[in-house]
Structures are given as structure tokens and as C-alpha cells.
UniProtKB/TrEMBL annotation:
The organism's taxonomic lineage, starting at the top: Bacteria, Pseudomonadati, Pseudomonadota, Gammaproteobacteria, Lysobacterales
Protein's recorded name: 6-phosphogluconolactonase
Organism per entry: Cognatiluteimonas weifangensis
Gene designation: pgl
Pathway: Carbohydrate degradation; pentose phosphate pathway; D-ribulose 5-phosphate from D-glucose 6-phosphate (oxidative stage): step 2/3
Spans traversing the lipid bilayer: none
Family matches, as InterPro entries: 6-phosphogluconolactonase_DevB, 6PGL, Glc/Gal-6P_isomerase, NagB/RpiA_transferase-like
EC number: 3.1.1.31
Domain Glucosamine/galactosamine-6-phosphate isomerase: 19-227
SUPFAM superfamilies in the record: NagB/RpiA/CoA transferase-like (SSF100950)
Amino acid sequence: MGAPQQRPWPVEFHSYRNDDQWAWAIAVAVAAALRRDLQDPGRARLLVSGGRTPAPVFRALAQAPLDWERVDIALVDERWLRPDDMDSNAYLVREHLLRGHAAAARFETLTRPGRSIEAAVADANLHARRAPGIVLLGMGEDGHVASLFPYMRGLDAALASDNAYVAVDAGGCPGAGPWPRRISLTPTGLAPAHTRLLLLRGQHKRGVFERALAGSDPRPLPVRIAFTTPGATLQVHWCP
Ligand SMILES: O=C(O)[C@H](O)[C@@H](O)[C@H](O)[C@H](O)COP(=O)(O)O
């Protein structure tokens, strides 16, 4: 692991030689944060991202012997798909995280068959009244974070929202792939977390993130909210 470097933003950058070290180091950091939260009575709350990147981290984290029965797992964002759709982030969490010890955790999906996107967002905002302790973020190759895409229609409103979650229409944003309708965490939803991690893999994403650090406008690179939103230091974990 490389030594964390100092940046003008509250960011710690950790780099690893390979994806195995990367996944285990992140899992150990998240498990330690959960263990600290579980020292208090009540429940711990963990928000996780989807996409392809976090799967190995989820598999490592699922092996941590914690009191998972007192852990709520919820999503940073979701594509407007049924939670059993193989392209949904809920499916990824079920397949890779809710295994082994972590199978005992309580999982809140953002979508449910038969519910409108407005009702789903209202529910998510209700759940979000319980602040997340730990948030695992990912970043797209285009610098999107959660489901906040560069120059997306409605991006300004999402960034300024007082709500933790909003419905988004990312139509026309190539990074959204075939799923333009989504539900996304906002800076308001991110702010209360005491532990904020960004999981990055590959040289391209490292370059995008370095560019992000050179400015503060979230419209071209929404990942900037990960370090400009007041609150916890952003811990970036990168491997090639
Ligand atoms: O639903 C989604 O698309 C994600 O939650 C998203 O925000 C993800 O974190 C990035 O797109 C990175 O995705 P990859 O890990 O697949 O590059």
C-alpha cells in the first residue's frame, strides 16, 4: 500500500499493487468502521454503490465476523429496474454481499415491483432519516458518482436538493448506459456519514479523479461532491 498523500481537499489516497490487496484492505476498513458503530446500542447503517467495481470488496466484507443482524445495508443509487433484475444494483448486493456472515444483515432495496419511482424516492427519504455511518462510493469512467452524471438534466436541482435521494433522468448521458431512469443519493444524503470511501480501479479512473481534484465544479465531474460536500474526509482506495 502506498503512503497516503496530502491534497488540498480532505482526501486520503491509498494505492495497492493488485485487486486482491485492494479488496481486502477496503473490506478491513469497512468492517472496522462497522464494528465501531456496533459498539453503540441500536443499528449500524452502510450505504453501498453498484456497478462492477465493488463485487470483490463485497465478497471479502461478507466474511467479516460482525453482528450483521444489527446492520442495515442500503444503496447509494439504483437503476429503475426490478430488484431481481440481473442489471440492478440490488442484485449485485444479494449476489456478492449478502453471503456468509453478512447474510444476516437487513437489506433495503430502492425499488420494489408495483411501486412508482416517486413512491420509491419518498420511501428512500424516509429511511434516510437514519443517517448512514459508512458510504461506499464508486465512480464511472465519465466522472459520475452515484447516479449523478455530467451535465445531466436536473443535475443542479439534485445537487441542491434538501432530500437525501432524488429521481433522475439521465437520458442522453452515455455513462448511464441503457438505464437512464434512476434513483440517486444527493450531497445532502452523503453529508452525515462519518466514513466516506471511494473505490477506484484502473489508470483511466485514476486520471479522471486527479482531474476532479483540480477543481470544484461538480457539473462536468459530479464525483467532486465526494470531497466538496462538507463532512468526513474522503478515503480513496485505488488499484491498477
Ligand atoms: O448504478 C450504477 O451505475 C452505480 O452505482 C454507479 O454509480 C457506479 O458506482 C459507477 O457507475 C461505477 O461503475 P463501475 O464500477 O461499473 O465502473
